[in-house]
Amino acid sequence: MSLRDLLKGREPGDPLVDASPVQEGEELLTVEQLGVVFQRGGVRTEAVRELSLRLRSGHVLGVAGESGSGKTTAGLAAIGLLPAGASVTGSIKYRDQELVGLSDKQMRAFRGSEIAMVFQETGTALNPVIRVGDQLMTAARAHRSGTRAQLRAQIESALDEVRLHDHDHVMRSYPDELSGGMCQRVVIAMALSCGSKVLLADEPTTALDVSVQREIIELIGELVRREKLAAMMVSHDLGVLTELCDELVVMHMGEVVEIGPVDAVLGEPAHPYTKALLDCLPRLHGDKVVLPELAQYGQPVTSEGGCRFRHRCPLRADLCENHPDLMTVEDGSHDDAPHAARCWRSDVLLAESGSAARLGQTDPSSTPVL
Amino acid sequence: MRKMILRRVATSAITVVGCSILVFVLRYLLPGGPIQDMLGGSGQSGGGGGGTVPLTEIRALENRLGLNHPVWVQYWDWVVGIFHGNFGRSYYSDEPVRTVLIQRLGPSLELIVGALAIAVVVGGGLGIYSAIARERKGGRAVLALSGLGLSIPDFWLATIAAGFLGLELHLFPPIWPAGPDPSFVDSIHYVILPVLLLSIVAGAFICRQLHSSMAETLRSPYIRTAWATGLRPRTIYMNYALRNAIGPVVTLIPLAFAALVSGTVLVEYIFDIPGLGSEIVTAVINLDYPVVQATVLLLAIVVAILNLLADIGLGLLDPRVRRGV
Questions:
Q1: Domain positions in chain A
Q2: Angstroms from A125 CA to nearest CA on chain B
Q3: A153, A312, B4, B31: least buried by Cβ within 10 Å?
Q4: Taking CB atoms and an 8 Å cutoff, what residues of chain B touch A187?
Q5: Is the model's pTM score more than 0.90?
Q6: Assign residue A113 a region: left if phi > 0, alpha if psi is -120 to 50, beta otherwise?
Q7: What is the pLDDT of residues A298-322, one digit of tens each?
Q8: Measured between CB atoms, which of B221, B320, B325 is closest to A119?
Q9: Which fold would CATH assign to domain A23-245?
Q10: Mind giving me the DSSP string for B265-281?
Q11: Which member of B228, B230, B240 has the closest CB to residue A127?
Q12: Is the CB of A113 less than 8 angstroms away from the CB of B230?
């Protein structure tokens, strides 16, 4: 019996929430032209600009970029948890219900029960003074009706989903008695037991050991397919993203600079920033690991025009003083997930990588260590 | 948990014993002595041979008070007496110290317990509110007020309040009634104003402490997880956040108690309340050692017990403390 079946018969908590069963491939979260601006003490920071994303059931969207590129802000905007002083423009829709502009109380019907977010912190993501079982129960109670025994059965089946089979031990423990990986599983189980259909994972593996990272990545991939979740995976680890994602978004200073199927974006990067991120991966040259550096942020770019990457860009030209839109790249990828880049000079870049591919550069020592 | 409690009981006992030794030995470090006072002499130190009072009389009194024995014997007799409920007799009034203390304990307890209760409930409540509303005007105003409460000198405020509210407006009795002590119910009338005054500083202190630990807790990742899980604000504030934030404040309550005890000295003086605070001042002025020693020891025991209770409370609140992590 799958978790989804067990969770059927849930009562529609809020009329805003569309409780109909999710179809495979259904578009669950649609972000259109999202803008987030922080206004604090007279300083205006544009954290996210013209962001458009679609999260579909059964698919994982990867989001890559450095710290400060707006990845986390975008996730927090989707569950309405931006700090005070942030203003949001554009649209975030969950199954046709507009979320931007909802009151905090209305948003609560979506948080946790429809859209769940998993954060980077593993050791401190759960309340240190409350037993894990009680935290799971509190979360389940907030979104579901039913007797204690029914809720417990749902929680236990969610724990099984994340492969924490020793229910009693896990539920009796305090978070600091569990490992970081187990805590992250508990957080995911909490999302499942509350019935979340969208999973926003904000660098969920950054704080974990490499071997545990792999387990969590595999778990998320498996849950997305089995439970038909729509997931967004934020990471600066391109290896993780390649493995898990169908589609990839590269963000730079609050903007999407490149979007498309993972293979296309990473195989034939059409934006110099994506190329630079790839070049930053350690490469093996004989026994030597070479770590090229990406130029640091220049002066913070305000609302002045022009490409936001041009101060760091090796391909900078006069044209780049005009702000580019996302432009489709002709590389033969599918129409439903077009490959697009925010760069005037992607043709130059593609020509380079294309010629490299044609030259048959198969030297194994220069493949990125992913 | 049991191990932790046992360990804390042991350290508390050591603290109390240390206090008792200190308090007993202190009299030998002070100049002068009770003998001269009792005999009406103005002599110098007891060892100096005693001015106008014949030496034989001094010796006789020393014998009666047991001061002729070595210090450690005197200490031992004192401790044994305490275990029998006998704190000795006041040098000044010759009443048993126990009788004196019991008479004086009532009004002081009313003051301290009342002020502590108000400080914890009102101060704590305002601390929670100001942390939750820290981005709003109300929260900032409460925080500013608590800063004011901490910085107003209490002797000034007490004098002004007694004069203005008591003598001018007749809202509160400015002074303890003469004659026999009022019953508990009647006495409440007289302690309201002193209790309110005492609670201001302690309340402001607790408010600020709870504000900062609550504000810090509200910024922590697990609170963000709780919001992201869609829990109700009340659950998040009162259950998830407060349970974490209240720990540091619990351990401060014994401190607040100790501060209130010294506060009563002043307040009892201004409002003429016959409590422990005024008694200890009188006893010190009269060099009435048995009363001073008994009072200080009593307070030390109470503070030690409160500390112990605070630690147990902290253990109940936080599993990591319980396990000794």
A1: 23-245, 269-283+304-361
A2: 4
A3: B31
A4: 225
A5: no
A6: alpha
A7: 445 554 678 888 877 888 888 888 8
A8: B221
A9: Rossmann fold (3.40.50)
A10: HHHHHHHT--SHHHHHH
A11: B240
A12: yes
